[in-house]
Amino acid sequence: MSDPRIPIVILGATGMVGQRAIQLLAEHPWFRVGALAASSRSAGRPYREACRWNLDGEPYAGVGDLPVLPCEASALVRGAGARALALSALPSDVARTVEVALAEAGWVVVSNASAFRADPRVPLVIPEVNADHLRLIDRQPWPGALVTNPNCTSTPLTLALAPIHREVGLEAVCAASYQAVSGAGYPGESAWDLLANVRPHPGDEEQKMAAEPKRMLGTLGQNGIVQASFSMSARCVRVPVVDGHLVAAQVRTRSTITPERAASLIRSFDPGLDLPSAPRPTLLVDDRRDRPQPRLDASAGRGMAVTVGRIEPCEVMGLKLFCLAHNTLRGAAGAALLNAELLRSEGYLERLKG
Ligand code: NAP
Fold first, then answer.
1. I need a labelling partner for 148 at 20 to 30 A (CA). Which of 103, 246, 289, 290 fits?
2. Contact 102, 144 (CB under 8 A)
3. Helices (H), ranges, 273-352
4. pLDDT tens, residue by residue, 138-189
5. Ligand 1 within 6 A of 13 CB?
6. What are residue 200's DSSP bridge partners?
């Protein structure tokens, strides 16, 4: 019997995020792997030969024999059809060309890459926070569509702050990340830089972490997204941890809020989403003094829940907390899949039938 699930083309299938996406699709109720694509180094080879599988569980998650396609729009349309759904785990510079070419060709692309996250035409979405921003798609100039999910540090921070922002409004946020090694892909950063060391992020991670929460906590207006008006400062650091990004945040709110009230809002946060990858609850509050920890908490809610802890008074800013998410699941592959689920439930995949 043929598989009735919707096929997804994984772009960047051999990388850290691509592998996670393939692993998640093996058991997904709505979607399955349709085709795989990666660089010219991998194209033309069977997936099991092109990919160095880095995850636990069954290597290649049942798709080891699929051929890897090149990541060029014309080849992808030839190989996977004129209308298709793609999950992109491409490096940003490659995504900038390929993703828009696919949207122009009629594909619906859900992307992890940062290339279009700040583009006013493209929604940057965490379904539990700003599902309504998806309506930007109605104004996109392409027959297909392009949707992005945030950076893996913006994700736990935005989710943890959303209930507080809705209740009392954010005025200023200072945040510092402690980021896992898997966040840099494979092979990622050099062992020399990572082992027994802590390294300030040399790239543009801090700019992304400072910009993205304001966009997602903003509102959809006539002329696009109106950013939330709080100020935000971010510092990002790589630490020798395998999976799970921890963020420490100090927060000033527009009206006073006690740590107890903030914890209660976070604990009772219920976006009312009924999607297969949406964890219930979305946010966990851990009252133990030494939590959250990446090793112990990154897999909460099958890697899709965000754990918040140490919600306490801050002498400088008013309130402080830690939050944590699994970077390749909630911060990347799981986030894109959740956006694909939202697209389906909002009817945006109907255009693939046209
Ligand atoms: P990665 O492990 O380095 O994988 C990169 C993937 O892109 C590989 O499949 C690679 O294929 C392919 N690729 C590289 N150059 C290419 C080219 N010129 N043309 C076509 N394909 C090319 O990286 P990753 O960690 O999976 O990250 C993927 C994307 O997700 C990045 O944009 C990253 O910023 C974003 N992201 C990552 C995380 C995370 O936690 N890792 C979180 C959020 C967002 P080959 O194997 O053939 O070279």
1. 246
2. yes
3. 294-297, 334-345
4. 999 999 999 999 999 999 999 999 999 999 999 999 999 999 999 999 999 9
5. yes
6. 237
Q: Give yes or no: 152 in active site.
A: yes
Q: Which of 33, 39, 207, 239 to mutate to test the pocket of ligand 1 (most atoms within 8 A of CB)?
A: 39
51 is known as an active-site residue: no
| Confidence class for position 68, pLDDT limits 50, 70, 90 | very high
The answer to whether the Cα torsion of 214, 280, 54, 237 is positive or negative is: positive
Express each pLDDT in 11-53 by its tens digit. Answer: 999 999 999 999 999 999 999 999 999 999 999 999 999 999 9
Predicted confidence at residue 284, as pLDDT, reads 98
In the reported structure, the alpha carbon of residue 49 is separated from the centroid of ligand 1 by a whole-number distance in angstroms of: 17
**Six-digit token pair at 93?**
């510079």
Residue 137 CA to ligand 1 center (angstroms) comes to 25
Tokens of 105: 């060709």
Neighbours of 235 (CB within 10 A): 15
What are the distances in angstroms from CA 227 to CA 110, 116, 250?
22, 16, 20
Question: What H or E segment, with its residue span, contains residue 97?
Answer: helix 92-105
Radius of gyration of the chain (CA): 20
113 lines ligand 1 (CB under 6 A): yes
Show the tokens assigned to 12: 């960047």
pLDDT band (50, 70, 90) for residue 90 = very high
